[in-house]
Each structure stands twice: as structure tokens, then as C-alpha cells.
Amino acid sequence: MVMATLRSPHSFPWFRWLLGLVFCVALALRLWRIGQINTLVFDEIYYAVFANRYLLGEFVYNSHPPLSQYLIAIGIWLGSHLPIDSALVNGLTGSLRPTFSYRWFNAIAGAWIPVIVGLMGFHWGQSRVFGAIAALVALLDGFFLVESRYGLNNIYLVLFGLLGHLCVLLALSHPSPPQRIRRQVRWRRRYLERPDRWLRQLSDIVSNRLRYPPRWQRWQLLTLAGICLGASVSVKWNGLGFSLALCGLWLGLQWQPPRDSRSPWFALARLPAIAILGYFVLLPLLIYCLLWIPHLFLNPEFNFWQLHRAMLTFHDAVGSGTDVHPYCSPWYSWPLMGRPVAYFYSTALNLRSLAPAVPPLPQGWAEVIYAVHAMGNPLLWWLSTGAIALMLGSRLLLPTAPDANIWLYCLWGYGANLVPWALVSRCTFLYHYMSALIFAQLALAYWLWQVWEQKGVYRAIAVLMLGLGGLAFWFWLPIYLGLPLSPAGYQLRMWFDYWI
């Protein structure tokens, strides 16, 4: 549903304040006791170590592009110089560093994701309610919370991919100024004769210019979108899914053009093929190549092509199944959250003991469990899967419905970030689903928005669903933050054996 009048989110004070509150809550959850687990968690043994090696001038080789390590390195350098008295330090990265130094930059980056999702929801349907629901659904997910609290790279892939899509929506949501506004900007002597009229006219011009940016700003935003899409690929190759989603959406709109000339989908359909190729393919490729320059400068032993050949060889050599890694999971199990990944597990004698215990406690001695599982909010996760399935069915049965283009966008985003994994033979993990999960959450927010729009008792249903999602988030919060649990409390949250 696209409203007839396009408006900026800045004209809705409560929406702006809500996004600010969402950001503050997200940031607080990500920074609170971020250094309590004073060790390297899961793949921090790679990314945090490689980032510190950049700072030490040592050789770095990784099976993924280097952008996330650059950003973690910046965080380490800044965190090591901030006037923060941290008692939690270790030398596991190769030099003595505060634990929070290789995590806090990720936490700030991850706190922006619910805000960006909220803005995307607003520009999708030009509805502040839609944007608010989308932001809350993203805030109440535990997967992005866990990924943001450690020195890992997946959060940057999603952040840059979403920024690219948001820039596209911003660029295509603004029509060019009508002739009426162009006439208003001419200098008229008669305004000098009537100061009150001149001030009123000036106010109209300013408000209209904010509402209708110049045409060149559209291409500027598309350029920024291409840069962000290239940055996403520079974190991991599967960041290509965000570019593939936009290209596929454009092709779909050529097959069935939108009817509403005021919608962003109409503007996207009218972009020439050369613009799609330039902004969503060639520019991201150029940014990808440029972001390798610092790595090649610091590690001149191998050139660009040798590094990529080695990376391909590595991924081809990785096997699949639980023999390779106990938390391997096939792509088709991700929509049901089939195999969450245990990032950390340690036991302690009491609440005063730090994690991890050194040396480890003998089996049966523990009274307290510290565990971190990369898993989502089960209720919202399963509802999101149902929402995307409902959207697919609606698209097939009602291809010309008023919101069919929104469905097409959501389905292309989801499919482009999930289906290509069917072609991957190496061991894959649940966190590879993060990019597709965002579009499933947007689909859930869309249907909750549709329920809300029915008013009456339906609004109570929408509020109830969000409230239950909040309760589920609170119930599993100790698993997300690594809070101390009793053995019984830990088992209470592990509903299935394959969650452990």
C-alpha cells in the first residue's frame, strides 16, 4: 500500500523519537558487559587476531575479503587509546588488548540495523506505523544482538547491504520538483514590497525543496548505494545477494511494470539497464577491488589474483556435515532455525566466578552456566518464515494486487540471499541466513502492519504479537548476553536437542 502523498520521516516527530529510542536500547544491549567473557569467542580467533596483525604490521591471510578486519582494527586502535579503565585484558590477539577493544565497534554498527530496517519499512509503504513495527521486530531479534557483541564479520555484511537498499529507496522515493516549485524559486521584486508575503513564500520554498530534492541527488544516492553494496561484498562474497536482489527486482518490474507513478517501484522500473548495470554491478565491483589495496600494500607477498585463487581453493576444500564442524547446517533448515551455533559455553562454581573458568571445572561440579548461542527469537523467527511463505502465496494468487510490488521486493531480497546457498557444497552455518532473515522480518512487519490497518480488535492482535515477541526476547536474553544461568534454567531454554 503506497500512500498518495510521499512524505519524509522527519515530518513525524514521534517516529523520529521512536527510532532514537530503538537505537539507544539496541546500543545499550550491545555494550552492556561487552567484555565480560575475557577470551576469544568463536571466530574471533580469526577476525580479531587478523585485525590486530594489521596494526602490528604482520602477515595476514584470510579466506574472506578484508573490510571487516579493517573495521575491527580501527576499533582495536581506538579502544586501546580511549581513557577507559578496563580490568579485562588479554593477549590472545597477539598483543595485550582490552577485551572490549575488538568488540565495541561491532556493537555500534549492529545498533544501527533496527533503525535502518525501520526507515526501509517507512519508505516501503510511506507509513510510520510500518516503519515502527519493522524497527521493533528487528530490535527484538536475538541473532543480530549476539553477532553485534563480538568481533565477528557478519554484522558488517548486513549493515552495508541494508544501507545500500535504503539509499536506493531514498533515491527512488523522491520525485523531481514540479514546475510550480521551479517557478517559486525565481526572484520576484514584488516580494520585497510585501515582507510578510516574501517570508511566507520563502518558507514554502524551503519546505518544498526538502520534500522534492533536486534530480541530481537521486544519482548521488544511487552512487552511495553502489558503494555500500560493494562494501557488503568486501566483507564476504555472499554480500552479493543484496545486489542480486535489486537486479532481480528490476527484471521483475520490467515483466510487470507498476501502475502507481508515485511509488519508488515505478521509478526503479524506469531506470535504464545501463544504470542498473553501473550502480548495482560495476560500481560495487570497483569498490570491492579498491578495498583490497590496503591489504595488498601491507601484504605484498601475494597479488590480487593469487589471493583469490587461494580463497577459492580453501572454500572448495572445506567439506560438509557434522564431521567437519558440529554446528554445520544445510540451507533448507535455516528458516526453521534448525541448528543454532553455540559461540561460548563455560561453567562456574558460583556467581562470583568469571567465565571462562581456568582450569575448566570437572563435570558435575558446576552450579552456574555461561552460554552464548547464535540463535534468533524463536517466536519471531518462525512467524517471519510463515510471513514470507504467505507473501509468496499472495504473490502467486494475486499478482496484480495493490501491494504486489512490495511482495516482489521482499521475495527477491529473501530468495537472492537464501537460494544461492543450495549451490554451495561446503559446510554452512545458521549465520549465513542473516541476510535473508532481514527480508523475512520485513515481511512479518508488513503483515502486522496490514493487521493494524484493519483497526478494532485487529490492532489488539498486532500489539499482542509484538508483546509476545518481546516476552520471548526477554526469556532468551540470558542466552544472547551470556548471563549466568542455573543448569535447570539453561535446559529450560534449550527446547530441542539440536539447539545445544
Key terms:
mainly alpha; 60% helix; 2 domains; 5 strands; single chain; 3-stranded antiparallel β-sheet; disordered N terminus; two-stranded antiparallel sheet; 500 residues
How many domain modules? 2
Helix count from the secondary structure assignment: 22
Instruction: Tell me the overall shape.
Output: globular
List the secondary-structure elements in sequence, H or E.
Answer: HHHEEHHHHHHHHHHHHHHEEHHHHEH
Compact description:
With 500 residues, the chain is mostly helical. The chain has 22 helices and five strands. It has helices spanning 13-31, 44-56, 67-81, 104-111, 113-125, 128-139, 142-148, 154-173, 179-184, 189-193, 195-211, 215-233, 240-255, 264-270, 273-290, 293-298, 304-317, 378-397, 404-418, 434-453, 457-481, 487-493, and strands at 89-90, 97-98, 341-348, 368-374, 484-485.
Task: Explain what this protein looks like in three dimensions.
With about 500 residues, the chain is mostly helical. The chain has 2 domains: about 10-175 and about 210-500, no CATH class; about 180-210. Helices cover about 60% and strands about 5% of the residues. It contains 22 helices and 5 strands. The strands form 2 sheets. A 3-stranded antiparallel sheet has the order 3-4-5. The protein has a two-stranded antiparallel sheet with strand order 1-2. Strand 1 and strand 2 (about 95-100) form a beta hairpin. Helix 8 packs across helix 14. It is globular. Residues about 1-5, about 175-195 and about 205-215 have low confidence and may be disordered.
